[in-house]
Design brief:
four-stranded mixed sheet, globular, Rossmann fold, 5 helices, 208 residues
């Protein structure tokens, strides 16, 4: 199975690539949108700001390719950190910016969502399942620790799209999903055994 990691100028490609290779994936760094049509599954990583991320995706021609391969062809997509946030309808980071609109919701700074702790949320934290039987959580115990680095969080419009939360001054989205589209706020590539298992589970879903 071949995995494309989108290179749009705002992702930590090396560590994501190594982690997928460790779980048996044939990894391609996608430098052009045409690559997405040649693979079995797609990963949208990301670090940085929502407006800049969406600008890079739009200018690079990635939005149309993602719409065609993910929404129409139903290829599984995993968004990581900023990549997860850009799945939303709108991001409110400095200036309100339209997202991909793949999963209904908005992205807001965590202190606007009730968090009274230090921003950013950085470090290991427990993840609590809302849908423990979901394929992404196979062989990963509830309340496992994952590694977070973020100041903004995804607030889903529909409760069924929220698969897991983490507690940091308030309840924040940790994993979202809709059909073949998945997003995790934490970094699975930095989350040791639990993170590797989640990537395996994403691969297993794609093989269904």
């Amino acid at each position: 199975m071949k995995v494309a990691i989108i290179n749009y100028g705002m992702g930590n490609l090396g560590s994501v690539r190594r982690s997928f290779e460790e779980v048996g994936a044939e990894v391609v760094i996608a430098n052009h949108p045409s690559t997405l049509y040649e693979v079995n599954r797609i990963v949208l990583p990301g670090v940085g700001a929502f407006p800049e991320g969406m600008s890079h995706l739009t200018k690079g021609g990635w939005v149309v390719a993602l719409q065609e391969t993910v929404l129409q062809q139903k290829k599984p997509l995993l968004g990581i950190c900023l990549g997860m946030q850009m799945l939303a309808d709108v991001g409110d980071e400095g200036v309100e910016t339209a997202g991909l609109g793949f999963i209904a919701g908005t992205v807001k700074r965590i202190d606007q969502l009730g968090c009274d702790q230090r921003v950013p949320h950085m470090g290991w934290n427990e993840v609590h399942y809302q849908a423990a039987d979901h394929v992404l959580f196979q062989h990963i115990p509830d309340s496992s620790d994952f590694y977070f680095v973020h100041s903004f969080a995804f607030k889903t419009r529909n409760s069924e799209d929220l698969l897991a939360t983490t507690q940091y001054g308030s309840s924040l989205s940790a994993v979202v999903a809709k059909d073949n589209i998945f997003g995790c706020q934490f970094h699975p590539e930095k989350s040791s055994k639990a993170g590797r298992q989640l990537l395996k589970n994403f691969m297993a879903y794609a093989a269904c």
